[in-house]
Amino acid sequence: MADSEEQNGFDDAAVVYPYARGSRYLNQVNENVVDLDYIPQRKVGRFYFAVKRLFDVVASSLAIVVLSPVLCAAALAVKLTSRGPILFRDKRVGQNGKIIDVLKFRSMYIDSESNPTKYLSPAQMVEWKRERKVKNDPRITKVGRFLRKTSIDELPQLFNIWIGNMSVVGPRPVTKREIEENFTPAEQAVILSAKPGLTGYWQVYGRSDVSYESGRRSRLTLDYFAYRSLGLDLELILLTIPAVLKGSGAE
């Protein structure tokens, strides 16, 4: 981490990350001008992106082949235990603001998105609208709870990575509403400059244990851009394995 701090010319102890609208960064950004210099970020070049894409293609291809028995078993379990499609296509904001379908094994009842009030209390509805997640969500099926706990529900995103609208490592995929409500215009521009990732700072260090309300969820997203490098990407991939095995923060 020390090398990246020197190259970017800032001391980690002195960095103050914006946590939500109303931060000092928002006041420094003109409504019509987005100044990316306000957000600490490590500069990366074409070599970084070329190697990253090559790794994405090779890694996703191998993972799809090796994990095909798990993918087939999960698909069968979803199909046999609840009504509805096997895959859930989650609309998220991708690179350059393009809306993409992030693939997941369906882990909720079929009407959980269209009719959330059927399952959620008023307090849970507030939490869901703010965080896009709910503690002990009653909309999740029994099979879905296992898939989420083991992160198997996210394995179809390997196809997103192979296609090219996601990466193995990157910021967490977010909805249009999430990014508009929790990040300033300058922060949004930085986040949307990269492909969302299957894993990253949030997935390793936070998962469902952190929230936008506390500010930590926003910070974890921005931390990636402050220190990103091929070495950091590899480190996050390796740290993902024990995080998934422990199941901490997964819901």
Gist?
This protein is mostly helical and 251 residues long.
Commentary on this structure:
This protein is 48% helix and 8% strand. By secondary structure, the chain is mainly alpha-helical. It has a two-stranded antiparallel ribbon with strand order 1-2. A two-stranded parallel ribbon has the order 3-4. The longest helix has 21 residues, at 46-66. The radius of gyration is 18 Å and the shape is globular. Mean pLDDT is 81; it is low at 1-37.
Distinctive features:
single chain; mainly alpha; two-stranded antiparallel sheet; 4 strands
**Structural class of the secondary structure composition?**
mainly alpha
What integer is the average pLDDT? 81
Strand content: 5-15%
Q: How are helices and strands ordered from N to C?
A: HHHHEEHHHEHHEHHH
Determine the N-to-C terminus distance: 30 Å
Computed over alpha carbons, the radius of gyration is: 18 Å
Strand order, main sheet: write it out.
1-2
The domain count comes to: 1
Counted beta strands: 4
Number of helices: 12
Largest sheet: 2 strands, antiparallel
Assembly status: single chain
Percent of residues in helices comes to 40-55%
Sequence-ordered SSE layout with sheet pairings:
Blueprint: H1 2-8, H2 24-28, H3 46-66, H4 68-81, E1 87-93, E2 99-105, H5 122-131, H6 142-149, H7 157-163, E3 167-169, H8 176-182, H9 185-191, E4 197-199, H10 201-205, H11 216-227, H12 230-246
Parallel strand pairs: 3-4
Antiparallel strand pairs: 1-2
Helix pairs in contact: 3-7
